[in-house]
Amino acid sequence: xxxxxxxxxxxxxxxxxxxxxxxxxxxxxxxxxxxxxxxxxxxxxxxxxxxxxxxxxxxxxxxxxxxxxxxxxxxxxxxxxxxxxxxxxxxxxxxxxxxxxxxxxxxxxxxxxxxxxxxxxxxxxxxxxxxxxxxxxxxxxxxxxxxxxxxxxxxxxxxxxxxxxxxxxxxxxxxxxxxxxxxxxxxxxxxxxxxxxxxxxxxxxxxxxxxxxxxxxxxxxxxxxxxxxxxxxxxxxxxxxxxxxxxxxxxxxxxxxxxxxxxxxxxxxxxxxxxxxxxxxxxxxxxxxxxxxxxxxxxxxxxxxxxxxxxxxxxxxxxxxxxxxxxxxxxxxxxxxxxxxxxxxxxxxxxxxxxxxxxxxxxxxxxxxxxxxxxxxxxxxxxxxxxxxxxxxxxxxxxxxxxxx
Length: 405
Ligand SMILES: NC(=O)c1ccc[n+]([C@@H]2O[C@H](COP(=O)([O-])OP(=O)(O)OC[C@H]3O[C@@H](n4cnc5c(N)ncnc54)[C@H](OP(=O)(O)O)[C@@H]3O)[C@@H](O)[C@H]2O)c1
Description:
Elements: H1 4-7, E1 10-15, H2 20-31, E2 36-43, H3 47-57, E3 61-64, H4 67-79, E4 85-88, H5 89-98, E5 104-107, H6 115-123, E6 127-130, H7 133-150, E7 153-156, H8 159-167, E8 181-188, H9 206-209, H10 219-227, H11 229-241, E9 249-253, E10 259-265, E11 270-274, H12 280-288, H13 302-305, E12 311-312, H14 319-330, H15 334-350, H16 359-369, H17 378-404
Parallel strand pairs: 1-2, 1-5, 2-3, 3-4, 5-6, 6-7, 8-9
Antiparallel strand pairs: 8-10, 9-12, 10-11
Helix pairs in contact: 3-4, 5-6, 6-7, 7-11, 7-15, 10-15, 11-14, 15-16, 15-17, 16-17
The chain binds NADP nicotinamide-adenine-dinucleotide phosphate.
C-alpha cells in the first residue's frame, strides 16, 4: 500500500454522501482539502442535498438511485453550470468506485444496498473505508476474499472497530493468538431504552427510538442501537475484520460512549481507544491512515468527565444481541437472514406498521423459516437475502393484523 506522502492528492468517492456518515466524511475532507479530491458523491433519492453538496464540492460525478429524481438533478446541474455528470443506480455506483482516479471509497450506504458497490470497490483494489457493516455481515468471507485477491485495503470506520484497529498490533493479520490477543471487547451504550422495563417497549415511537443518548446517526442504525442489533451486527463485523472466533468477542455496557472498544492481551494488559463520541474521529483515522489528520473533534476532557462506568450486558433485555451471537455460531447464511429480517422489521417499525418489541420476533421467525446454507458466492448471499425479506414481510403483515385486532 502506497503512503499518502508518496502519492499526493487522494481521489475519493463518498457513497451515501447525504447520510450521517457521508456528511461527517465531507466535513473531514473539507478540513483536509489539500490532501483529498472528491471525485464522486452518491445518494438514493435526496436530490436537493446532493445538489447542494455538488455546488460546494464540485465532484466529477454524482449518483442517484432514483431515476426520476436523477432526471431533475441532471437538469439542475447543467443549469447551474456545474462540472458534475449525473449517473443512475447500481451501474453508476459501480462506475464511480472503479474509476482509476479514485483511490479511496467511503462505504457509507446503509443496509444491504451497500454490498454490491463495496464488493466492486474491493475487486478494483481500492482502499475501502467501511461504515456499511451490513456488507460484512452478509458477505464477510466473499468481501475479504476479494480484498485479498485484488490487493484492496479495508479500514474500519465503525467507531468500535476503528478503536480495535487502533489498539491491535499492526501485524494482527498473523492471527490474534499469534500477536498475544486473548479478547476483543466491544463497548455498547445500551441506546435510549437501556433503562426501560421490557413491558414499556410495546408503545415506544420511532422518534424515541431515534433519540440516541450519545450519537447522532441515521434512522436505521439508531433503531438498531435501541434494540442492540447494532451491537450484534458489530460482533459479526468484528469476527470478519479481525479473524476472531466467537469466544474471543464480548460486549460490555458503557453508557458514556467514551471508550470505543478494548483489546485484552495475554500479559494482562488491556488497551482502549477513547475520545468524544464523534464519528469524525474514526473517519479521519481511516482517511489519514497511517498518518493522523485533523478531524475537528473537541479534545476529551477527562477531569470534566469525572468517571466512566462499565456493566455486564443483560442478554434477556436485548434479544437481538442474543440472536446475532446465535447467527454467528451457526454460520452460513444465518447472518444474511438476520440482517435482511432486521432491515424489513426496522423499516416497518419506522413506518409505524410494527411495534418496537416485535422486531426481534420477526427476526427469530424468519430464521426459523429460512433454509441456512453454506457457500460464499454473491448469488447465494443475494438469494438468501431475498428469501428472508419475503418471509419477514409476511410476518410483519401477520403481526400488524394481530396488533390491530
Ligand atoms: N451514522 C453513524 O454514526 C454510523 C456509525 C457507525 C456505522 N454506521 C454505518 O454506516 C452506514 C450508514 O449509516 P448512516 O447512519 O450514515 O445512514 P443514513 O444517515 O441513513 O444515510 C444513508 C446513506 O445511504 C444512502 N442510501 C440509502 N439507501 C440506499 C440505496 N438503496 N442505494 C444507494 N444509496 C442508499 C442514503 O441516500 P438518501 O439520503 O438519498 O436516502 C444516504 O446517503 C450504515 O451501515 C451504518 O450502520 C453509521
